[in-house]
Amino acid sequence: xxxxxxxxxxxxxxxxxxxxxxxxxxxxxxxxxxxxxxxxxxxxxxxxxxxxxxxxxxxxxxxxxxxxxxxxxxxxxxxxxxxxxxxxxxxxxxxxxxxxxxxxxxxxxxxxxxxxxxxxxxxxxxxxxxxxxxxxxxxxxxxxxxxxxxxxxxxxxxxxxxxxxxxxxxxxxxxxxxxxxxxxxxxxxxxxxxxxxxxxxxxxxxxxxxxxxxxxxxxxxxxxxxxxxxxxxxxxxxxxx
Length: 241
Prior knowledge:
Layout: E1 6-9, E2 16-17, H1 19-32, H2 40-46, H3 51-58, H4 68-82, E3 88-89, H5 93-102, E4 106-114, H6 115-125, E5 135-138, H7 151-160, E6 167-171, H8 174-183, E7 187-190, H9 197-202, E8 208-209, H10 212-231
Parallel strand pairs: 1-4, 1-6, 4-5, 6-7, 7-8
Antiparallel strand pairs: 2-3
Helix pairs in contact: 1-4, 3-4, 5-10
C-alpha cells in the first residue's frame, strides 16, 4: 500500500482491556436468572461478535433457552452500569494514538458494541485523541451491519475522509482479520488482546505485533518506502506489509 493516512482500531482487546467488566456483567446477568457463571477464559472466548453472540454462548442452550432474551436484556443493562469499573487502555495505547496524531495520521474506532456506547467510551478514554464521531459501533437498526461486514469500517473511513489505499485496520481477533479483508484494508493483529498469537496465525494473521509501539514502527517503514520511491523517481507501486 502507499502512504498511511489513517488507522482504524478495534476497541475491546485492542485499545481497551474490557474483559473483567464484560465477565462481571455477564455473570451478574446469569446469576439473576439462576444460571451457572462463566470463567474469565470462557468469556474471553465468547467476545468479538457483540453482546448478543456473547450471551448466546454464555446462556445454557443459547437462543433456544426460554430465558435467553431476558438474559440478553440484563446483560445490556448490567454492562452499561459496569463498563467503566475496571476497564482501562492497554499500556502504550495512549502514547501510540498521541504519536499518530502528532504525525498527522488520523485515527478511528470500529466495534461490535452498541454505537452509542462506543462513542461514549471514545469520549471518556480517548478524549482529545479520537473524535467520538470517528467511532462506530453496532447499529443494525440503521442498516449498518456489524463486523465482519465492512459497513462500520467504511462509515468511519468516510468520516475520516480517507480511502482504502491509505488506511490500515488494527484488531485482536479473527473477526477483525475478516473485517479488514472485507473492507479492502491491510490488517495488523495485536497479541495483547483476547486471542493468542497462535490463534491469530491459524485464522490468517500475517502481521502481528506484541506492543503498541510496534504499530508505529510498521507505519513509519511503510511511509518511508513511499518517500524513498518518490525521491528516486521510481514509479510508485502498491505494496503490502
